[in-house]
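hey so u asked for the seq, here:
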Amino acid sequence: MKIKWLFNLSILGVSLESENDIGRRIAFSNIVFLALPTVYFIFMLFDLRSYLQPIQDLRFDQFIVPIVIGICILCLWLNKIKWTTTSRVLFIIMWPLLLHLIPIKILQTPADYYLAFPIGIIFHSVLIHLMFSQREEPFMFWFFIAINFLAMVFVLDILLFFETDQDQPKALIQHTYYVLDGILYWLLFNLITFYMILSIGKYIERINTSHMMIEKQKGELDALNRSLESKVLERTQKLEEQNKKLRDHAFYNAHLLRGPFCRVQGLMQLQELITDGKEKIEIQQKLKFSINELEDRIHEIQKIVDSEPTQ
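ran it, structure tokens below
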């Protein structure tokens, strides 16, 4: 819960309902726009004394740091208002201009830039991988990667073009592997970044597929539960009707059958005691009537038991 706000910032401009490769690049760009200002702000704190000087005494590279922080905040806001392509293109163009090309020209290629510039080009290529999808934004991705690779190939020419005071580290730049090492490290970091992002994308796609399957199975289980509830209600209704039949059967057995049965039993006992022929005939008639009545009651009970339950 404590870092929920940070997660909310990382998904600015991302549609969570339709997660895709571009959405992941937007989320990656938000992370970059949050991380870089944090790093540069810490850098300003370490070098706070130099920033407390009068503005006319500040060096150009000191102005660049707050400008980059401002651009990151601007790009984060552009993502928030759904101008996601604009924010990413703006950052990918402005970052090398402000931190490398413009300082190289103004400061006439300081000696430390013979290391900083190649490293910056490699980091810039990683940013391109993070911010643009080679599958869904192939033009922008390959356009920026091609320019970035050409900058690495001609890194020494760019540095020497703006060199004026001849203070370059000759032992470094005159070495055969100076440019080649830069290209090899460029390839290494680009391949690693490419496969890492590809693996992350595949992993997220598998998670999304699993989530969709779970949601589908959940829907099927809900439908099955509703069907089971309906069947349970139906079965309960049938059981209630069967119980009613049993209660009716018990009623007939306890009351309606009891009367004819007792009369039959009494008439049979009475018949054994009477010797008069006329009275015996009368008792036989009554006995026959009671037996027929008993048979009718048995048929009624059979109809109740055999009848189908109402639907």
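The chain has twelve helices and no strands. The radius of gyration is 46 Å.
lmk if thats what u needed
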